Amino acid sequence: MSLLKEVLKYEVNPAMGCTEPVAVAFCAASAAELLGRGRILKAEISTDPGIYKNGLAVALPNTKGEKGNLLAAALGTLIREPGLKTEIFRKVTPETLRAAKALIKSGRIKLSVDHSRRGIYVKASLKTAGHKAVCVLSGGHGNIVLLKKDGKTVFRGVPVAARAGASGAGAKSGRDAYKNLLRKADFSRLFKEAEKADAADLAYIKQGIEFNLKASREGLKLKKVGYYIQDLIKKGYLKKDILSTAKLTTSAATDARMAGAAVKVMSSGGSGNQGVVAILVPYLVGKAFRIREPRVLKSIALSHLVNSYIKVFTGELAPICGCAVAAGVGASVAIVYQLKGVDLKAAGRAVNTVISDIGGMLCDGAKSGCALKVASSADSAIRAAYMAVNGEGITELEGFIGATGEETIKNIARISKFGMDKVDRIILDIMAAKGHG
Prior knowledge:
This protein has helices spanning 3-11, 19-33, 49-54, 69-79, 94-106, 175-184, 187-195, 199-219, 225-234, 242-258, 272-288, 293-314, 322-340, 344-358, 370-389, 405-419, 421-432, and strands at 14-16, 42-47, 109-113, 121-127, 132-138, 144-149, 152-156, 264-266. By secondary structure, it is an alpha+beta fold. The chain folds into two domains: 18-163, CATH 3.30.1330; 185-432, 2-methylcitrate dehydratase PrpD. The strands form two sheets. It has a six-stranded mixed beta sheet with strand order 3-2-4-5-6-7. The protein has a two-stranded antiparallel ribbon with strand order 1-8.
């Protein structure tokens, strides 16, 4: 099995809109498709806390800035085209939006959060005059594990999390198998996988650069974070250099996504914002340092691998910002590879320095403020990589930092999963009290 190809297949995909409300819409659409064209009389949508949190305040594409998982679910039940997958919001029209709002206003669709769930989980239960349908998504934004119509199982799969310990003959192919391999990997393996990238892999990675640069250009049309960084540069308050360029470009792409712009980005680790960081930061640094394109593209392959590697330990939706501790780290290791090749010690220094710097960045859901976190992650990634290739970095003598990058990642994952569980619940309670769905 090519670990890189599996990561590119499952974790690196074009997405229009924030991937959490996309997952909600996809799940609702999958249930609705089973019902034919009958009028929805009742719809109940339940999500894990992370999905709920990330969909609470982020704008949906083609809705003129409308927000929320409840609206995403309503749109999914009306679009009924799960084959669109991560591009489901491409089919939103003014008529669909009006119908979705009417469905919500009627009280026929409800959204709740299931605090017992961890990891990605969405359940959609729909009813028409003649039929009932259920769809359950678990372990990945597009990973359906159950479809039922009128009480009869149409499809049954197994959640990824339930197979996390599988190995050897008992391990099944697909998403769970590559995650098991990632969990057992180290940075030496990740470097080797990136260096084996073939022409098809590199072409796909290059397509991701193009998607994300286009999103950045769209974001600069909005007067948000990227625009104001650009304005500071134009007025001479910031120097135009690789740090400011990376912050400007990445934050602008995130501005576009979080504002609901109808543009695709290439995701990483199932996250569009993480894709922005993991792809554009190494690309821009490689361009600035005049690194040859094949090496830049392989460095981005490494960035994707590191991002996904970290997320098998922290979880896909963690209390800490994945743009910082996963994509930011991946981007930094990628820059190390551009400048020094396979240097495990330098890579470890970069990991330790980024996590020491911004490892405590909280995730309070997807929204416009994510552009600020993306800008900080880009800045930290470049600075840490430059220090690392020059023999400097944070060591295990400081705080929770480990002796190796792998050890530090497991330490921050432990802090996130167990130490910050109550923090995440408090953040969610504060957000939910604002009355948004």
